[in-house]
Amino acid sequence: MVLRFSNGIGGKDLSTKKIDVSLSRGKLWNRAQSVVFYCGIVACCCFFVITVLLIAIPQVVWDIELILIMGSCDIGAVAFMSLLIVVKIQKEKLSKDVMLWLEDAIEIKAYSQKLGENRLGFQPKATKIRVSFNIGGKHFRKDSSLTPFGGWEGYAGCFNKYADREVNIMYSPKYDEVLILKD
């Protein structure tokens, strides 16, 4: 089965809702991750509100211990908030790139093969996969090439559930990108 997506003309809608993983860039942002992101931002802001409230209360004695604790909490909140924002920006860029890749994408069935597993310390297992498919009698094989933070090239946890089975993919011939669809 081959479906072509257009740029919205003719009633066809480009949407990233069907896409789960990109072989080259990893998992797309989903609703649960958005909730965690916004909860993390709110939690970080609470540290600043608590600090301001403690400064405003005249009965609070600011000794060196309280200054160190509140300063450490605020610095940690800024660092965590910065990390959250960087990840959000990367995922938003991925969503924009996926929209671009979908312009000429073809939906086809493919077979994914596990090329290896890896564990780094206490992290969950990471899998590297190869997706094989045919278009017009021509055979294609694409390996996962994502490099997560501190990981090995192509190994990521988002590929675990797609190893050694048939998957539905979107392939963009123009950009040579493989996107795995949700089950």
Report on the structure:
The structure is a single chain. The chain has 183 residues and is an alpha+beta fold. The chain has 2 domains: 3-27 and 100-181, no CATH class; 31-95. The protein is 35% helix and 27% strand. The chain has 2 helices and 8 strands, in the order E-E-E-H-H-E-E-E-E-E. It has helices at 31-56, 64-101, and strands at residues 3-4, 19-22, 26-27, 106-118, 126-135, 138-143, 165-172, 177-181. Strands 1, 2, 3, 4, 5, 6, 7 and 8 form an 8-stranded antiparallel beta sheet that branches. Helix 1 (31-56) packs antiparallel against helix 2 (64-101). The radius of gyration is 22 Å and the shape is elongated. It starts with a strand and ends with a strand. Residues 1-12 have low confidence and may be disordered.
User: What number is the mean pLDDT?
Assistant: 85
By oligomeric state, this entry counts as single chain
Strand content: 25-35%
Question: What is the global morphology?
Answer: elongated
Largest sheet: 8 strands, antiparallel
Q: Roughly how many Å apart are the termini?
A: 16 Å
Please tag this protein with its features.
183 residues, 2 domains, 8-stranded antiparallel sheet, 35% helix, disordered N terminus
Sum this structure up briefly.
It contains 2 helices and 8 strands; from the N terminus they run E-E-E-H-H-E-E-E-E-E.
Write the layout of secondary structure elements.
Blueprint lengths: L2 E2 L14 E4 L3 E2 L3 H26 L7 H38 L4 E13 L7 E10 L2 E6 L21 E8 L4 E5 L2
Antiparallel strand pairs: 1-4, 2-3, 2-8, 4-5, 4-7, 5-6, 7-8
Helix pairs in contact: 1-2
